[in-house]
Amino acid sequence: IVVLLLAISSTSSAQFPWQKPMNRSKKVVAKIVGPITQKEPSRDLTIVWVWGIDKLHEKGTHEYAWVMDDYVNVLLPQVPRVTVVPSMYFPKKQLWEKADLVVFYFWPREKWDYDIIDAYQKRGGGLIFIHMALMQGSGQQLAKRIGLAWDTRRGATKWGVLHTPVTLTDAASKSPIFMGFPKKFDLAEEFYWHLRGNPAGITTLMTSPAGPAIANKALSSPPKIEDLDGRKWPVMWTKKVDRGKVFVTVAGHNYFTFNDPYFRIILLRAMAWAMNESFDPFKPLVTKDIKLIH
Question: Which of 17, 81, 280, 283 sits 20 to 30 Å CA-CA off 230?
C-alpha cells in the first residue's frame, strides 16, 4: 500500500480562476445512482492504478498522487472482493497478468510495451485513460488501443478550457455509463481536441465545441459562444478492442473534478462496465466524503 503524507488537500483550485466545483443536488445524484441491489461483484477483482509525479502544474491540477491516494487507499478498498494496486508509471508485466482493470492517470514518460497491452486486451482486460494519460509517444500506437490520443506533430492537438455545458450523444443515452444523466450539464474542466486517431472507431459519449486554444490564466472569464468553433469534439468515449473494453475521458485536469459526484458516477460506472460487472457495489463511493446541496 502506498501511504502519502498530504500537507495540502485543495479541492477548489483550478487553472482558470473562474472555474469552481459544481454544486450537485443530493436528490438528483441519488436518482441517477439508483438503488443498490447487488452488494458485491460477481468475482474477485484486481484494479491497477497507474500514477506518477507532475511538477509542471500548479497545485489543484494534475494531482496524480492525490487522486491515486484517494482511490487506491480510501475509496476502492471499500468495495468487497476488490483489490487495488498502485503502479508508479507503466505497470510491470506481472501486474498486467493479474489485472481486471488498469486505470491510467498520470503524465507518461518512458516507452511503453504495447505487446503487453495487446495481450491484455485480447484476454478481455479493461482500460481507463484519464486526461494527460492520452499523451504517449506520437500518439499513433496508443490511438490504435484506445481510439484517440495526443498527437505530438507540430500544431496538431490543441488544449484549452472545456466549454460548458457539455452535451451527451445519442449513444450515451443507451450507455450504462450515462444512464439517468441529463442531456447537458456543467463540468468545469480543461479540454483537448484535434487528437490523433479515427473518430469513427470509437463510441463518442460526450462532446463539446472548442476554442480558444492554449487558454490559460490570461483567460479571465469563460469563452463566449462566438469564440468557439461550433464543432462536436469527443470529450468522453468508449472502444472495444478484441475482448477488452476501453473508456477514455479528456476531462480530469482539476482535482475537484474527482470529488464531483457526477464525475465519480461516470468514472465508477466506466470501471464496472470495463470489467463486465455491476455498478451496484461501487455506488456507496459516489458521495463518500462529499457534501451535497439539498
Answer: 17
Rounded CA gap, 140 and 152, in Å? 9
First to last CA, the chain: 36
**3-state SS class at 219:** coil
Contacts of 10 (CB under 8 A, 6+ apart): 59, 60, 255
CB 33 within 8 A of CB 283: yes
pLDDT in tens, 213-271: 765 556 778 888 888 999 999 999 999 999 999 999 999 999 999 999 999 999 999 99
Instruction: Give the residue from 160, 172, 174, 108 showing the smallest Cα distance to 139.
Output: 108
pTM of the model: 0.93
Q: What's 99-126 look like in SS3? A: CCEEEECCCCCCCCCHHHHHHHHHCCCE
Q: What is the torsional sign of CA 165, 167, 173, 175?
A: negative
Q: What is the spatial distance between Cα 246 and Cα 273, in angstroms, rounded to a whole number?
A: 9
Q: Which three cell numbers stand for residue 94?
A: 506481472
